[in-house]
Structure formats: C-alpha cells, structure tokens
Specification:
The protein has 369 residues and is an alpha/beta fold. It folds into two domains: 13-240, Aspartate Aminotransferase, domain 2 (3-Layer(aba) Sandwich); 242-368, Aspartate Aminotransferase, domain 1 (Alpha-Beta Complex). It is built from 13 helices and 13 strands. The strands form three sheets. Strands 1-9-8-7-4-2-3 form a seven-stranded mixed sheet, with helices on both faces.
Length: 369
Amino acid sequence: MTHPFLDLAPLSAARFAAIEDRVARLLGTEQDVVIMQGEALLPLEGAIRGTAGPGTVALNVITGPYGQTFGDWLRDCGATVIDLAVPFHTAVTADQIRESLAEHPEIDFVSLVHAEAATGNTNPVAEIGEVVRAHGALFYLDAVASIGAEPVLPDAWGVDLCVIGAQKAMGGPAGVSAVSVSERAWARMAANPRAPRRSYLSLLDWKERWVDGGRKTLLHAPAQLEMLALQACVERIEADGLDTVISRHASAAAATRAGVRALGGGLEPYVHEAREAAPVATTLRTPPGVDASSVVAKALSAAPALPLAAGGGALAGEMIRVNHYGPDARRDLVEACLVELGAALAEFGVTVDAEGARQAVTAAWTERR
C-alpha cells in the first residue's frame, strides 16, 4: 500500500534549487541563498563559525537568550566579543550601536537578533544596518522569528548573513532553514582557516560544491518531507501575499496588547513600547506575587491547545508569552488566550474584565484590518 509521506519521488537538485529561488524572492535578495537541512540553529552556528575566529572583534547585541548564545559561539571561535546588552523589555537603538562602534573602532562583526520571540521585542534593523554598513563591519542577523511577521530585507539593510527558519511566522516546518550570504561573507569564510569544511556546519561546502557548481549536484540526500513542506508554506505566503501575512501578525500583536490593557488585573505588556514589540509574539508581565508559570498551567489545563507559554529560565515566574505566529495569528485565538488567562488570574483572586478584553481585541483587530 502506498503512503503519501513515504512513497515519494526523489527530490531533484533542480527542484531543490527552485525552492531556494522562492526563498530568495521572499527575502527580496540577490545574494546566494542556501537551504540547510536542519533547524535554524544549524545555519546560525555555521555562519558564525564560518566567518569568526581569532582576530575577529565582534559586537554582540543581547536583547534575549539567542544573543547570549551567539556570544558563546563567537568566544568559542576565538573572537574578542564586546557584548551590548539592553533590558529585555526594550529594543536596542541605532545610536547605541553607533556609540559602541565609535568606542571600539576595531569591531569587524556585528551579531543581532531581529525579533526575540522569547522576550517579545524587535530591533530596528534597517536603522542599525545603515550604521553597521558605514562602519564596514560584517552584519549577521537572526531573522528566524521575524520572517513572515515583519519585513526582512537583507540587501536593503546591508545584512551579510541573514538566517531564517520556517517554523514560526511562516507557518512551515522546523526541520529546514536557510541563510542568505553576501559576497563579503563568502570572502570572509574563504579566508578563515577555522571555517568548517567537510562538515554538516559548513557553508563553504555548499558554496564550493553546490553554488559554484551551478546547483547541479546536492551534497547529500535532502530532507524531502521538510523541503516539500517548506515549498508549500512559501507557496501559501505567495498566494496570500507577504504584505497580507505581515499585516495579520501586526493585527494579532495590536489586538493582544489592547486586550491585555482592557483585561486589567495587573497583567501588562512586558515590552513597554508597542513599536519595540515583536509582531510574532506578545510577552506579558504578571502582577506582583502571581507566578506566571502557575497562571499558564491553569489556562492550559482549561484549553490545552492555546499558544501560551511561560517565560524561560529566570523569567518563568514573571513572564507569559502569547505566541500569535503562523496559523495562530488569528483574532479568535488572541481572544481565547486572554479569556483563559483572565480566568486563571481570577483563581488567584485578581479582578479582571474578560468582556472588556474581548471587545478591545475585536476593536483593535478591526482597526488594523
């Protein structure tokens, strides 16, 4: 008996290349786009290890946990790392980047997360890109959470290494990811004796054996199901229109913030300014004395399928995350999340206005649409 997930024709190099081309169009880039056969941590780490080493001086911007991870990788490569950490309830500014570069003119690498789903903030990459480009540093960007939820334009922003994943706002698979690579970044890798070669982490292997060979022969058997799912999710975005998908995420974020303020009870947006809040997820701060993990557990016990999570690590006690990305960027899900959070808070003796939250979500969503 045939099975639609198992009995598939081999994925040809031509089809693999065609999917890469569609991803490149999604990014609006003329750079080489390489699809890598793993979750986005694969190209995120591979890009750093390919371009950084002893002699590299990196400005590593920390607006959440991934920025901390990038700093660890850079140090492991032998780079000198200057961390620029900002409070998780805000975003970094172009002026802060400019000041750091002026203070350390030897910086030749800048790493940044566009949107931090874990902390709910988003950074002004277009403005930052101008500063980094003027300085001449290589610009590395994690756009895994932001792609599909807000514009991601590596060419226009001067991004040399732009990593994306499909599992969040794109609404696609987690097991495949992509990176756009500028000519400057390829040259940096080629000159780096420590860049991974003959390795699953190696971008140079893809450059030399795939891109330079005219994309005729794949390095290894592709992750076929994930590649087909990636193609399907890109096709869905193309059919809906990228602007429409982005607008839907912006509506979900605006509706969540409006609903939270109307719900009351001391629950409030964790990221203070709406312009610094990521459209992919909204983080919330619980009232003093109310444990966020307990609130989320109560809400999920009533509605297990809701896209709710407590903050990670030290934030587990005070942060709630409403994940309104991909197929969850919907008004009814935003409303359901806030209603169940309100019911859970009420069990802690907190007074909330669930009906006011419903009305605020509808009004904000309608205004955005």
